[in-house]
Amino acid sequence: MQVFYNDRQAAHHGKHEMFRGELVPCFEVPARVEHVLAELKSRKLGEFAPVPEIGDALLQRVHAPRYLRFLEGAWDEWVALDPKNAQRDALPSYWPIRTFRHDVLPESFPARMGLFSYDAGSPLTSGTWTAARQGAACAWGTAQRLLAGDRAAFALTRPPGHHAGHDFFGGYCFLNNAAIAAQALRDGGLQKVAVMDVDYHHGNGTQAIFYERGDVFFASVHGDPRTEYPYYLGYADERGACAGEGANLNLPLPRGTDFVTWRGALAKALEAIRAWGAQAMVVSLGVDTFEDDPISGFRLRSGDYLRVGEDLAATGLPCAFVFEGGYAVAAAGVNAVNVLDGFRQ
Ligand code: SP5
Ligand code: ZN
């Protein structure tokens, strides 16, 4: 399987995120990807492919032009506010909810930070745009491989993507890599593409991007949003709208769920994807379902991820794997590579 490794991933290097009124060290760190890389190499799994150039045209198929322009210039604007900001992460402090306008673009940089985000846990740093853009290019690479006839490909990248929407960042995500891969598969000629999101957290960004579309099916198994991040989306009654009616499937599970129950939900999601008639699948591969994950509540063990890979392979569908969450940093390498290893059996 071809692997697209984002060698600029470490350029995105948040120091702190807001948690319970305090700035705490980021959970989403460069070492996560380095552990996956080391595990791939030690098992001799995957061949490393050159990362393609990604143009604005594909990014704009998923994200709003004004959001992309904002992200590209955000760090320079932040530092221009105060030279001391060069030593600080940029975090939002204001948000326009319900009755505020969203069709305005304030001059104020902090006001635009809030317009284009939904939490204070996703620091923007000097290299965020560089890392996120090359990450999206890795996702584009996986779609190219599938279109060329490969059975699977892997985008080894961070920051992750599935919480990023058409015009907002959040949940450590800036560009929606999985959505970009799915869109690229559509643009490359496939009629029906599925996104299977197995990250602990609901992929609210991906869901929102495709919610009214009948050509991309979104399925997710995740922590119940009544108690788990991202809280405001991911409920079982969200089934899609307009042309996308019936093309969205959420399977929320309570904190403490073990692998047997989780695997049953995955089977249900994969059966729905099969019945819908998907020709290929993008897998949002988060491994924060792991029992020792510091911010999550499921109880999967390392060996279980081999079974996850086997279950995905049993669909017979070509799979573009895109790395998402997983914060038990060293184990994230073993767990993510176990999925790929199980897939190739
Ligand atoms: C891609 C992804 O997995 N994003 C997850 C974003 C979660 N952000 C909220 C984190 C809440 C941190 N809770 C800390 C609990 C410590 N016991
Ligand atoms: Zn997650």
Automatic annotation (TrEMBL):
Q: What is this protein called?
A: Histone deacetylase family protein
InterPro entries recorded: HDACs (IPR000286), His_deacetylse_dom (IPR023801), His_deacetylse_dom_sf (IPR037138), Ureohydrolase_dom_sf (IPR023696)
Which terms under GO biological process does the entry name?
epigenetic regulation of gene expression
GO: which molecular function terms?
Answer: histone deacetylase activity; hydrolase activity; metal ion binding
> Has keyword Ribonucleoprotein?
no
Record's superkingdom? Bacteria
Q: Does the keyword Metal-binding apply?
A: yes
Annotated keywords: Hydrolase, Metal-binding, Zinc
State the organism named in the record.
Ramlibacter humi
> What does this protein need as cofactor?
Zn(2+)
What taxonomic lineage is listed for the species of origin? Bacteria, Pseudomonadati, Pseudomonadota, Betaproteobacteria, Burkholderiales
- Pfam families in the cross-refs: Hist_deacetyl
Q: Where is the Histone deacetylase domain?
A: 28-338
Q: Which family does it belong to?
A: Belongs to the histone deacetylase family.
